[in-house]
Write a structure and sequence with these properties.
globular; mainly alpha; 5 helices; single chain; Four Helix Bundle (Hemerythrin (Met), subunit A)
Length: 185
């Protein structure tokens, strides 16, 4: 029997194990779709869309940091976003712009943001579980749970992994639902 890939959600686990397992599967599938390309391929567009795999890498890196930084705790954006130009103070407004960033920088931006997110998620879950209230929405009088934050990130990945699938197939024909079992970042 072959080993189960690290991104495969559990077949029988707790709510948090299933939720984070599904998120890890989406992260792995997205990263596999974007993996191994040079700067030109990462900046290639398809049809009438301006989306690129490089732009998606940068955007999802920022979303990871937003969800598990300002949304979770209320803390301001940290590096690398706090040092970048932004539009109206919102780093997400410029995340699809990859000007000046090479392939290695784009991959590192995403890889580093996901590593930070994994640490922050584990700490948050250990500190209060999925039911705990997070900072997002509190200023507006809303009670938002950690569960909602995690599901929002899963939804964001699901949407953009579909985009990545179409773009990557147009670049070199790579298709598939999940990375091959032996694939690693």
């Amino acid at each position: 029997m072959t080993a189960t890939p690290a991104w495969e959600p559990p077949f029988d686990g707790s709510e948090i194990e299933h939720l984070l397992g599904a998120l890890e599967r989406q992260r792995a599938t997205f990263r596999w779709k974007a993996d191994g390309l040079d700067e030109a391929a990462l900046n290639r567009t398809v049809a009438a869309s301006s989306l690129t795999l490089g732009g998606l890498l940068k955007h999802l890196a920022c979303v990871e940091d937003e969800k598990w930084g300002p949304n979770l705790s209320g803390a301001p954006y940290g590096p690398p976003w706090s040092g970048m130009a932004s539009y109206d103070g919102d780093p997400k407004a410029f995340t699809f712009d990859t000007t000046g960033l090479g392939a290695e920088q784009l991959y590192a931006l995403w890889d580093d943001a996901v590593a930070r997110a994994r640490t922050r998620i584990a700490e948050a879950v250990a500190d209060g579980g999925l039911e705990q209230q997070i900072a997002w929405g509190a200023d507006d009088g809303f009670v938002v749970s950690l569960r909602r934050l995690a599901f929002d990130l899963l939804e964001e990945y699901s949407r953009h992994t579909g985009h990545a699938d179409i773009i990557r197939e147009a670049i070199d024909g790579r298709v598939g639902e999940d990375p091959p079992p032996a694939w690693r970042i």
